[in-house]
Amino acid sequence: MNECSVAPRMGRQPLTTRAALSHVALRLFLEHGFDQTTVDDIATAAGIGRRTLFRYFPSKNDLPWGDFDAELARMRAFLAATDTTVSLVDALARAVVEFNRFPSEEVPFHRERMNLLLNVPALVAHSTLRYAEWRLVVSDFAAGRLGVAVDAIEPTVIGWVFLGASLAAYEQWLRTDGSNLIELLESALLLLKEGFTSGELPTVGPGGQA
Amino acid sequence: MNECSVAPRMGRQPLTTRAALSHVALRLFLEHGFDQTTVDDIATAAGIGRRTLFRYFPSKNDLPWGDFDAELARMRAFLAATDTTVSLVDALARAVVEFNRFPSEEVPFHRERMNLLLNVPALVAHSTLRYAEWRLVVSDFAAGRLGVAVDAIEPTVIGWVFLGASLAAYEQWLRTDGSNLIELLESALLLLKEGFTSGELPTVGPGGQA
DNA sequence: CAGACTAGTGGCACTCAGTGCCGAAAGTAC
DNA sequence: GTACTTTCGGCACTGAGTGCCACTAGTCTG
Predict the structure, then answer these.
(1) Between the CA of A9 and the C1' of D30, what is the distance in angstroms?
(2) Nearest-CA residue of chain B relative to A129?
(3) N-terminal to C-terminal alpha carbon distance within chain A
(4) Are A100 and A181 in contact (CB under 8 A)?
(5) Whole-prediction pTM value?
(6) Which of A9, A69, B180, B186 has its CA 20 to 30 A from that of A104?
(7) Nearest 10 degrees: Cα torsion B141, B142, B147, B149
(8) Would you call B153 and A125 a contact, using CB atoms and an 8 Å cutoff?
(9) Residue ranges making up the domain that contains B187
(10) Is A106 inside a domain boundary?
(11) Residues in chain B closer than 8 A to A187 (CB atoms)
(12) Residue B197: closest CA among chain A residues belongs to which residue?
């Protein structure tokens, strides 16, 4: 009948949120290490049952990612809203940069999270599945622009190439203290545009800066 | 004293080999599915103890890969033996093609294996760790040629880009019955050289040079 | 208010991957 | 034979992830 909707939901209220759990887990991972932290530890620290935690996140590996699906949706929307006069590569480059822009107070936090995701073997492996979703967003857009199927070779390669450039920038970012992620991303994406074959590689502009 | 060496080894002889176990596992995975096959099943089918199996392979996920380290060593050697007059990109392209050449009777077998590796989520995730080793071979070589550190951005991007192209070719190969892996790889690698899709991405000058 | 309904919670028991320990088995060397 | 070396594999354990089910905390209807 009535679509209750708005504020007063139907059944019992959730005790916590994905974001809160992700935060608690991240803190424990940083304190004691990913492998040393059990799911029980996290559930206890969050004040919920272990069984409940697995209803918020399908696996321990997903905890650091927080609400990645929402981020992906943002990126997809950004691409969809991009003017068609912008070239494919530029559109993707802008979207990638936008996707990785964070309020400055969250940057150190994000840095630690990425540090885990790119260094803990279990997370490195698992991340592939998230990256695949990310690549799909990219190659979906590319396929639309190029007028070919999503699973054609061009969109697929483009998906991989943009992912590679992004991760290379991330690795660089984590390696160098005080470096600027956005600038590194732009450099890496420029490398793509300019093409890396020619004689050598195009020299990238003066790297660092705040 | 005497370094026994040659044929008669010291202690007890191994009951089986990595290759044999990989083969048995692959057969079971194809028959019943990866997730439906337990490590116990594999050990039993191979006639060894479960504990022993874990001495041959560190995890269930490693079984389909067989002796990947040996393959990587081959690729590394191939690159090391490549004439320095061959351009960086060409050298890598040749090595990648060589790395993926198999005797024709093994092709269907290899196809099934890659089908698993690229489709079973657990394996897709785990594969990342193997790919990382592969990328290291590529970026190591690139770093040497470019005279920069392995962890500089150029070799890193190159590693990712070649991996992406290879995997794109593999996906295409698995998708289309009767297609030729080597040809698909060459196409994908050509895309890299040419800079994919004229109209969109900038065409890169005629690659070659020393 | 009671009673129906709905959705989140979490305990329990289970499966399965992976590991440490340790004694047994199967070889070689003397 | 004994000594030594290496592989084997059983046993018990940890920890992730799942199915089941009763319980809790809400809303809705009358």
Answers:
(1) 21
(2) B125
(3) 57
(4) yes
(5) 0.84
(6) A69
(7) -90
(8) no
(9) 67-194
(10) yes
(11) 153
(12) A154
Tokens of B42: 């594999």
Report DSSP letters for A140-157, one per residue: HHHHHHHTS-TTSHHHHH
- A44 φ, ψ to 5°? -60, -50
Dist. CA A179–CA B201, nearest whole Å: 28
C-beta atoms surrounding B152 within 10 Å: 18
A3 and A89 assigned to the same domain: no
Same domain, A24 and A98: no
Q: Which of the 8 DSSP states describes residue A9?
A: -
A24 torsion bin: left (phi>0), alpha (psi -120 to 50), beta (else): alpha
ipTM exceeding cut-off 0.90 for this assembly: no
Quick one: average pLDDT of A118-131?
Answer: 96
Distance from CA of A8 to the nearest CA of B (A): 38
Q: pLDDT tens digit string along B134-150?
A: 999 999 999 999 999 99
Q: Long-range CB contacts (< 8 A, 24+ apart) of A99-108?
A: A99/A71, A99/A74, A99/A75, A100/A166, A100/A181, A100/A182, A100/A185, A101/A182, A107/A181
Task: Check if the beta carbon of residue A186 is closer than 8 Å to that of residue A165.
Answer: no
pLDDT given at position B128:
94
> What CATH number is associated with residue A87?
1.10.357.10
Total domains in the fold of chain A:
2
